[in-house]
Amino acid sequence: FGTLLALSSYNKFNNNCYRDALLTSSINCLTSFLAGFVIFSVLGYMAHVQNKSIEDVGLEGPGLVFIVYPEAIAMMKGSVFWSIIFFLMLITLGLDSTFGGLEAMITALCDEYPRVIGRRRELFVLILLGFIYICSLPTMTYGGVYLVNFLNVYGPGLAILFVVFVEAAGVFWFYGVENFSSDIEQMLGKKPSLFWRICWKYISPTFLFCILVFSLLGYEAMLEGEYEYPEWSVAAGWILTLSSVLCIPLYAIYKFMASHGDCKDRLRQTFKPEPLIPTAVPGQIYSGTAV
């Protein structure tokens, strides 16, 4: 994910990334586990009060947050206090998520174009936020909820699965697990265990590929409901999904066409990693080779 890559880029070279990875994933799993108690306890309370089954009470997405939860909080003692805490939590959660996503975009562009954008970071951030603000205005209209649902269906989802799979395949298959393990050894002083190398090379890419395939096979428009979307919205949705996916094969084609030699030489140059990688030792450069 771009957010994790952007934030980790500010660490020192010999930062303990192994510890950070375990802490981040553990906290994420624990947060999801605790959130389950909150969600299902509220749904159970609503089902008991309304004398309905949980299937009839439960909603997902905005309906769960803006309909079920406020209604449940209104029935509790001290509803005003809990309402303030709940909506304050929503505001801080939204701001926190926005900070991370924007920082991924800002960091990537500033690092890629340090002379043009990096030197004018504050101005670039101001222009970017203004552009995003203008683009988000349609979601504040009367039909904005349907636009939000449209973006939620076709925006992330399949695109994220594809990008993560390509990222894993590119690093562990083309760059090579041994090269990647050597990089970590230079950072931490020891190589990752055999368990991690097997997970990186075989288990993780295989699971990601299977999830991606089954998601494509079982994919539905998911736009059915009280509002009937126009037929062209499905095509527009797939264009939105492909807009964040096509950049990968298009850039690969560009690198292939920009390479020299016959087809075999071009493929070798396209999939060969960068030869110079900075190490933790000042003035030392490690020359990596593809597997």
TrEMBL record:
It is found in: Membrane. Belongs to the sodium:neurotransmitter symporter (SNF) (TC 2.A.22) family. This is Sodium-dependent serotonin transporter. Its main location: membrane. The chain crosses the membrane at residues 21-47, 80-102, 123-147, 153-177, 198-219, 234-254. The keyword Lipid biosynthesis does not apply. The keyword Cell membrane does not apply. It is a multi-pass membrane protein.
